[in-house]
Structure formats: C-alpha cells, structure tokens
Amino acid sequence: MFISLRSFTLSETLIAITIIGVVAAITVPIIVNKYAHEQTIAKLKQNYSMLQQAFMAAQSEHGDILSWEDWEDSEKILSEYLAPHLRYKRLYPVSSNYYKMMCNDGKKNFYYWWLYPKTQVVSVPFMPGYTAAVELDNGICIGLTAMADRKQIIVDINGTQTNPNRFGEDTFMFYINNNGQVRPYGDTRTAQYINKYCEKGKQTGSGMTCAARIIKDGWKINY
C-alpha cells in the first residue's frame, strides 16, 4: 500500500505558528500571575504566623500585650519587646516624614501606593512620628505604629527595595485587637466592607483590607 505524505504549505505553517502564539499569549500571563499569587500567599502566611509567634513570645516575657507600658514608643516596642523574637538585621527609627518610613535609611523616598490603577501615595497607615520598622534577615520589612488607641502592623513581604510597594500586592496591614491578638486589618467588618476596600482597579479599593480578604477567601487572591 502506498501512503502519500503531504507537506504543510507556508501559509498553513504560518497559521499554525500564529495559533500557537495566540494561545501562548493568553496562557503564559495566566500561569505567571497564578505563580505570583501563590508566592504572595505563601509569604503572607509565613509572615502572619511569624508575627503571631513573636508577639506570643513577647507576651510570655513581658506580660499581656495590652498591658505594656510603652505603647507610645514604637522604637522601644520593636527593639525591646518584638525584635528579640525575630531574626532581623536592622531597626529603623520613627520619622516625621511618611515618605521615609518602613526600613528607609533616609537617603531617598519610598513611595507606597494604594491598589488603585492611578498613582496615589499612601499616607493614612503611616503615622509620622509613631511608625518604626524592622528589616528581617530575609529582607521583609515590618512597620509598627505604637499608640495607645492604635496598634497597626504593616508588612512588606518583599521589602521596600523591591516594587511594587503597593497595598494588596506586596504590602499588607494588620493590627492588634482588644484581645491582644494579631489580626488582619478589617477582619471584624462585613464581607462587603472588606471587598470594597480591597478591589483592584476600583477607586473604592485601597488595599488595606486585602490580608483580611485573602484569609476570608480561604487564602486565595480573588481580586
């Protein structure tokens, strides 16, 4: 039996290459984005657990978190209470300029942005004169706002030297609740509120509640 093998024409080959290119253009960004999300979630989980353990260890040494006498001194809380229970390489003092906070040596400005598509500098979470920071051995930066009525923790999971420095992408916000627990910011609010303030591409979404949204959604990024 004689079998005839027909070669592809140039046009057919070009069509096949074009189809492959289109499929790759669609699937590769999806794969890359999925991988980036998985890395973000893994780092967020690790840091959340680390913070909880560090504060628990500090409580065993200094008593209940809410009873600490130094909650108006971010630098002291970090250096004497928290840092001894972390693997860190440098402490950073408070600054009167929120552009120079979060593991900034003061030589240049670090800009943090909301999750908005438009560039808007974040100012609210960084309390000038109250927020000190610690840079861990792995480059992660943790900022602490120590105030009697506001105990905020801001975590940059890849450090201030690496972009995007954007809330909801590599920067997440936590706080210490009235029970002395480290919790994601907004965790006690409604799902509608949490989603509203963590919605990429929307003017209503700042990114401040993204850690709460990720945990609420079963450690998934759905925004």
Shape: globular
Number of strands: 6
Strand content bin: 5-15%
Fraction of residues in H or I helices: 25-40%
In the sheet with the most strands, the strands line up as 1-2-3-4-5-6
User: What's the helix-strand series?
Assistant: HHEEEEEEHH
Main sheet overview: 6 strands, antiparallel
CA distance, first residue to last residue = 60 Å
- Going by helix content, strand content and strand pairing, the class is alpha+beta
Radius of gyration, taken over Cα atoms and rounded to an integer in Å: 23 Å
Uncertain parts: none
Count of the separate structural domains: 1
Mean pLDDT: 86
> Count of helices?
4
Structural description of this entry:
The chain has 223 residues and is of the alpha+beta class. The chain has one domain (10-216). It is 34% helix and 14% strand. The chain contains 4 helices and 6 strands; from the N terminus they run ααββββββαα. A hairpin with a 5-residue loop joins β5 and β6 (182-184). The longest helix has 53 residues, at 10-62.
